[in-house]
Write a structure and sequence with these properties.
The protein has 535 residues and is an alpha/beta fold. Helices cover 39% and strands 16% of the residues. The strands form 4 sheets. The protein has a 5-stranded parallel beta sheet with strand order 2-3-4-1-5, covered by helices on one side. Strands 12-13-14-15-16 form a 5-stranded mixed beta sheet, with helices on both faces. The protein is elongated, with a radius of gyration of 28 Å.
Length: 535
C-alpha cells in the first residue's frame, strides 16, 4: 500500500489523490467552539471496509453536515497526513478497532460539482475528472510509465494498490439539470470506475438526491443507500441530537435550548430521536439570534415550484401543516436523481422530504420547525394559491382590528375565510375553526410567538399570543361553538388563562372570545382589555 515515489506526496500538487484538504478542514472543524463529535460513525463505516458491503451512498439535505463527515472520514483513513492526535480524544478513539484503519489508506477524494473551464459540454465535464485522476495516479506510480489504458479502472488496477473513494455532490448534474442526454453515461462512468473493483477498499458517496433504482441491474445498484426517508444506521450523525444541541447552548449565554428547539428542531431519526438542523443552530449561536437561513440557500424556491405543479391536491395539506395539523400519507418510493420533476402528490412530498423541507415519520408529514414555517407562510402569499394568498395578505388587518378591539370586524373576516373555497375550512371537524383563526392571524407571527392549546392557569387556552416587543399587548383567544363570545371571555377569566402572560411580565392583555353559530352560520367576536390588577 506504499508509494513507489514518496517524494510525490510532498513535492507535487495533487487534486484528488491523498490531498491535504480533508485533514486540514477536519483539523479546523475539531478545534471550533461549536464542534460536535460525530466520530462514532467511523466505527460503523469501518465494518464495511474491504467487504461486499463497502459501497455507501448517504444523501441528506444541504446544511446537514455531509461535508464535515466527508472530511472526518478523509482525515481518519488517509495515510498521507497522520491524524492520531486529532482522533485520540474523540469517541472513535475508544473503539476496539480504532487503530486498525487509522491513516492506512490512499484516499481519492473529489466533488462532482466542479465544472470544466475548457467548455460546457458533458465531454468537457467528465473529461476534466478523468484527466486529473489519471495525472495523479501516474505521478504517484511511475511504474505505469507511458502505458496506455482503455479506462481509469484499468489504470487503477495496474497501479496494484488499494484506495478509499470519497465522493461529494455525486448528484450535481441531476440536481442542476445538466447534460440530461448524458446522465446515463455519467452513471455508467461511475459504475465502471467503482463496481466490483478490487482496488476499491471503500466507496463513500454523498449528495442530496438518492440514486434512482430502475431495476436490479441499475448501474449503481451495488450501493447501500441511506436517505431522509430510509436511514436507521447513520441518521443520528447528520444533524444535532437534542443532547448535542443542549451541550452547544451551554457554550454561550444568549440563546436557550427552548429557543433553539422552536426554530431548528423537528426532524426525527428512524427511532424517533430529535434532530436539529446543524448549520442553522451554529449560525444562531454564533450570531446570538435565531432566524431562517433557508432564504439564503435558494432551495426554498423549489417549494413553490413543487406546490405549483399540483396545487389542487397539495394546497389543503399545506394549509393544514401551517396550522400544525398532521397530514397522514404513506410514502414508500423516494424522489431520486434523474427522475424528472415530481408530478403527483406523493412525488412532491417525497422530493420535499429529501430536500429537508418537510419532516416525515411513521406516516405523518409536517413542517419541521419555525425556520421552515416562516418560509411556508411566505409561500402561501403567492398568487398561485388564489384565495389562500388573499387571506394571508389580509391577516395583518385582522390583527390590527383585534388590537383596536373591533370584534365585529374580526368576526366579518372570519366569516369570509369560512366561506372561502378551501374545503378544510368548511368546519368538517373540530380543528376547522382553529384553522380559520390561524389563517386569519397568520401575519401576527411577525410580532407574536403564537402557541395553540397551551396549558395556562386552570386549563388549556386555544391560543396565546406572546408579544415579541414589550409594548405590544398579549392576546388570549378562546373558541366556542353554539355558545356566545361572552361565555368564551368568561372562561378565560375564570380559568385564569392569563397566568403565563403575567409570568412573562406582559403589561397589557386582550381577551378575545370567538363563537360560531352552526345553525345561523355566523361568527361572533368579543374583545376585552384585561385589568392586570384584577387578573
Amino acid at each position: 500500500m506504499g508509494y513507489e515515489n514518496e517524494a510525490y506526496m510532498k513535492e507535487n500538487g495533487r487534486l484528488y489523490l491523498n490531498t491535504d484538504g480533508a485533514y486540514k478542514d477536519f483539523r479546523m472543524l475539531s478545534g471550533d467552539k461549536y464542534f460536535v463529535d460525530k466520530s462514532a460513525m467511523i466505527e460503523k463505516v469501518n465494518e464495511r471496509v474491504n467487504t461486499k458491503n463497502r459501497y455507501l451512498c448517504v444523501t441528506k439535505p444541504r446544511r446537514f453536515g455531509k461535508t464535515s463527515v466527508l472530511n472526518m472520514l478523509g482525515a481518519y483513513y488517509g495515510k498521507a497526513y497522520p491524524a492520531k492526535e486529532l482522533f485520540d480524544p474523540l469517541n472513535i478513539g475508544r473503539s476496539a478497532g480504532y487503530e486498525a484503519h487509522l491513516n492506512r489508506y490512499n484516499i481519492i477524494k473529489f466533488s462532482l460539482n466542479e465544472l470544466s473551464g475548457a467548455g460546457d459540454s458533458y465531454q468537457d465535464y467528465i473529461g476534466r475528472f478523468k484527466t486529473i485522476l489519471e495525472n495523479d495516479i501516474r505521478a504517484a506510480y511511475p511504474k505505469l510509465g507511458g502505458r496506455k489504458f482503455d479506462s481509469l479502472s484499468d489504470l487503477l488496477t495496474a497501479a496494484g494498490d488499494e484506495f478509499i473513494f470519497i465522493i461529494d455532490e455525486w448528484d450535481y448534474i441531476f440536481s442542476h439539470d445538466l447534460y440530461p442526454e448524458n446522465q446515463d453515461n455519467f452513471l455508467e462512468f461511475l459504475r465502471d470506475l467503482l463496481k466490483d473493483k478490487p482496488y476499491a477498499a471503500l466507496v463513500y458517496m454523498t449528495g442530496v438526491l438518492p440514486i434512482k433504482k430502475y431495476s436490479a441491474g441499475s448501474a449503481l445498484n451495488m450501493f447501500d443507500e441511506y436517505t431522509m426517508l430510509n436511514d436507521s444506521v447513520f441518521d443520528e450523525f447528520f444533524g444535532f441530537t437534542e443532547e448535542e444541541a443542549a451541550m452547544l447552548c451551554g457554550r454561550q449565554s444568549r440563546l436557550t435550548l427552548d429557543e433553539i428547539a422552536e426554530w431548528y428542531n423537528g426532524y426525527l431519526t428512524d427511532h424517533g430521536g430529535k434532530i436539529y438542523n446543524p448549520r442553522s443552530v451554529v449560525q444562531a449561536l454564533m450570531n446570538g439570534k435565531c432566524q431562517s437561513c433557508w432564504t439564503r440557500t435558494g432551495k426554498m424556491d423549489e417549494v413553490l415550484f413543487f406546490l405549483k405543479h399540483n396545487i389542487g391536491e397539495v394546497r389543503d395539506d399545506v394549509v393544514k401543516m401551517v396550522n400544525h395539523m398532521p397530514v397522514r400519507v404513506e410514502i414508500k418510493s423516494e424522489y431520486a436523481a434523474g427522475q424528472g420533476k415530481p408530478v403527483n402528490r406523493k412525488e412532491i412530498y417525497s422530493a420535499m422530504i429529501i430536500y429537508g423541507m418537510l419532516s416525515y415519520h411513521e406516516g405523518t408529514l409536517r413542517i419541521p420547525n419555525k425556520e421552515l414555517m416562516i418560509e411556508f407562510e411566505n409561500v402561501l402569499e403567492d398568487d398561485d394559491f388564489g384565495y389562500v394568498a388573499e387571506l394571508v395578505r389580509n391577516s395583518e388587518e385582522v390583527l390590527n382590528a383585534t388590537l383596536e378591539k373591533k370584534g365585529d370586524v374580526v368576526a366579518s373576516y372570519l366569516h369570509n375565510i369560512h366561506n372561502s373555497e378551501i374545503p378544510i375550512l368548511q368546519y368538517n371537524d373540530e380543528n376547522s375553526l382553529s384553522c380559520v383563526v390561524t389563517l386569519a392571524y397568520l401575519s401576527a407571527r411577525n410580532r407574536y410567538r403564537v402557541e395553540r392549546e397551551e396549558k395556562s392557569g386552570k386549563g388549556f387556552v386555544d391560543f396565546i399570543f406572546y408579544p415579541r416587543r414589550k409594548k405590544q399587548p398579549g392576546i388570549l383567544i378562546e373558541l366556542k361553538a353554539d355558545s356566545t363570545p361572552e361565555a368564551a371571555v368568561r372562561q378565560i377569566k375564570e380559568r385564569e388563562y392569563c397566568e403565563k402572560l403575567k409570568k412573562e411580565n406582559v403589561e397589557e392583555i386582550l381577551f378575545v372570545g370567538i363563537n360560531y353559530d352552526t345553525i345561523k352560520k355566523v361568527h361572533q367576536c368579543r374583545i376585552e382589555e384585561a385589568d392586570i390588577s384584577e387578573v
